[in-house]
Design goal:
The complex is a heterodimer. Chain A is an alpha/beta fold. Helices cover 33% and strands 26% of the residues of chain A. In chain A, the strands form three sheets. A six-stranded mixed β-sheet of chain A has the order 6-7-8-3-11-12, sandwiched between helices. In chain A, strands 2-1-4-5 form a four-stranded antiparallel β-sheet, covered by helices on one side. In chain A, strand 9 and strand 10 form a beta hairpin. In chain A, 44% of the residues are buried. The model of chain A has no long low-confidence stretch (mean pLDDT 87). Chain B is built from eight helices and no strands. The longest helix of chain B is centred in the first third of the chain and has 40 residues. The chains are: A alpha/beta, B mainly alpha. At the A-B interface, helix 2 and helix 3 of A face helix 4 of B.
Chain lengths: 286, 252
């Protein structure tokens, strides 16, 4: 049986009178890639923050790497969090620290990961070279472009070799070329370091790329795992969030076959055609 | 009515939780000495010129005003006493606190608020640092150390300002002014004058951190938090001033 890395059991979150998440059930197994699609405010970001216990749910249980983190104290969470990498929507880079200090931050501050300074520098340099930004060590975040800051964020999220990587809208607001580069790096991290990945995005292309492309060391680029027109089986699941609920959970093929007016908009970028006969449409939780 | 009260009561409860956690963390490792020193420099040394300036002016104005009143009774030689008591007990601590509230509670709230809206505080938590330990405690400790020192400087400069006016305009001798100013001071006055800035500092730093860390809504939210931090901490300075003054008055 596959090992569950992250589990949401009937998780709800309420901010004052607003129900932000409504009884979400989700299991991410080791090696899985989960793509969270959804409109702004549909609950993607809070789902990722709940996964690291940066916010507490109003009800339900969350299990991360085998620990029930729902009621843990902040001090007890640090060790568990050290096995998870996260890229925040706003980047979350510390603007008063250099890129080297930003990427090295978890290695200097997480008890479990503390290492001699030379080793930290080596790992930071490696991680920055992984995102092709090895030359930016002494720069500050404000000196980098938006795309470069995201790449630094990816380097920082993955410098600890996490078991689970969470990416919150990594391509939001970027041009298509930079967005492609960012997604390539996420696929590279997933494939080379075998990291379980949860990716929140509103761009279907990002999900399609994670589902069908893999890293090729020979060409040093991502390549399609299967020919065009076919669906690869890279353990990728799609979740479509709508107003705090899971509106769809299934594979890419099922997502593309869905005739749900909300769900299909993420694939088609327009309202769906008239409902035709047949086709597995994924399951719609009650 | 109950609904109307819910939000302020909830906020006050959140403030007390933050205050409790911060106090508990003051002596708990890791202690970020570099951050404490940086904040002491920013809050203390940074505020020094304006605090000295306002201290001097308050001494000058007090002396001018008091000398007129004392002249009626032919007691201008007692100017030093009145000025000294007013500055050490009230004007020094309160004016310094209002300046620190305006300058530093706003600075703290806007800095932490910007960090909050750009997810730097979440990032800190995700990457193994407790923001209370790293951000709140250094600001709290630095303000609590620097504010009594700033107040002492403001008091001294205020007395010097008074001295200049007493000698040049009122016609006191320097010795007359200075000895009457110092002789009147009792231990109670000094204790009051140093207790107030210490308590004000704790409130100012915590209010600044509290509003900074609960900022929402982007840059507009940062502006709102900054304004709230200054207004609320200034009001608390006056409320606490009354309470401490009453305690010391009842002790004499």
């Amino acid at each position: 049986m596959a090992e569950a890395i992250l589990q949401f059991e009937d998780v709800s979150l309420r901010f004052e009178d607003n129900l932000v998440l409504d009884r979400v059930n989700l299991t991410v197994n080791r090696g899985d890639t989960f793509i969270l699609l959804g409109a702004a405010g549909s609950g993607k970001t809070v789902l990722l923050k709940l996964a690291m216990s940066l916010i507490q749910p109003s009800s339900g249980r969350i299990r991360l790497l085998g620990h029930d983190i729902t009621d843990l104290k902040e001090s007890e969470l640090f060790e568990i969090r050290s096995e998870v990498g996260i890229l925040f929507q706003e980047g979350g880079l510390f603007d008063s620290l250099t890129i080297e200090e930003n990427v090295g931050y978890p290695l200097r501050n997480q008890k479990r990961l503390r290492a001699p300074e030379e080793e930290i520098l080596t790992r930071v340099t490696e991680s920055l070279e992984f995102v092709e930004l090895g030359h930016t060590l002494d720069k500050f975040p404000s000196e980098l472009s938006g795309g470069m800051r995201r790449r630094v964020g990816i380097a920082r999220a993955n410098v600890t070799n996490p078991k689970l990587s969470l990416y919150d809208s990594p391509t939001a607001g970027l041009d298509p070329i930079t967005a492609h580069t960012i997604m390539s790096l996420i696929v590279k991290q997933r494939d080379l370091r075998k990291t379980t990945t949860v990716l929140a995005t509103h761009r279907y292309q990002d999900g399609a790329m994670a589902a069908n492309y893999q890293w090729d060391e020979a060409t040093h680029d991502v390549v399609r795992a299967v020919p065009h027109g076919q669906y690869a089986s890279l353990n990728t699941s799609f979740v479509v969030m709508k107003e705090g609920k899971i509106a769809f959970l299934g594979e890419q093929q099922q997502l593309e076959a869905s005739r749900d007016p909300y769900v299909s908009q993420f694939v088609l970028h327009q309202p769906p055609p008239r409902i035709g006969p047949g086709g597995d449409r994924g399951h719609l939780p009650a | 009515m109950l609904d109307y009260l819910k939000s302020p009561v909830q906020s006050f409860q959140d403030f007390l939780i933050l205050a409790g956690r911060s106090m508990r963390n003051v002596a708990k490792p890791p202690i970020y000495w570099n951050d404490i020193l940086m904040q002491m420099d920013s809050i203390g040394v940074g505020s020094l010129p304006i605090v000295a300036l306002i201290g001097a002016f308050s001494g000058i104005v007090m002396t001018l005003q008091m000398s007129r009143a004392l002249e009626t009774y032919g007691a201008t030689s007692q100017t030093g006493q009145v000025v000294s008591i007013s500055i050490i007990r009230e004007l020094g601590p309160v004016l310094t606190a209002l300046l620190v509230a305006g300058r530093n509670a706003s600075g703290i709230a806007s800095e932490l608020g910007s960090m909050k809206v750009t997810e730097q505080i979440d990032a800190m938590r995700a990457l193994g640092t407790d923001p209370i330990q790293k951000l709140v405690v250094p600001r709290l400790v630095a303000t609590a150390i620097m504010q009594p020192l700033l107040t002492a400087i403001a008091d001294f400069v205020g007395l010097l300002g008074g001295l200049i006016i007493a000698v040049t305009i009122i016609g006191n001798t320097a010795n007359q002014y200075w000895s009457s100013a110092i002789d009147i001071l009792a231990l109670n006055d000094i204790a009051q004058g140093m207790t107030k800035p210490f308590v004000f500092a704790i409130v100012i730093a915590l209010v600044g951190c509290f509003y900074g860390m609960r900022t929402t809504g982007g840059t507009q939210g940062v502006g709102l938090s900054t304004t709230k931090a200054v207004v609320v901490s200034s009001v608390w300075v006056f409320v606490i001033d009354v309470l401490i003054t009453q305690i010391f008055v009842s002790l004499t």
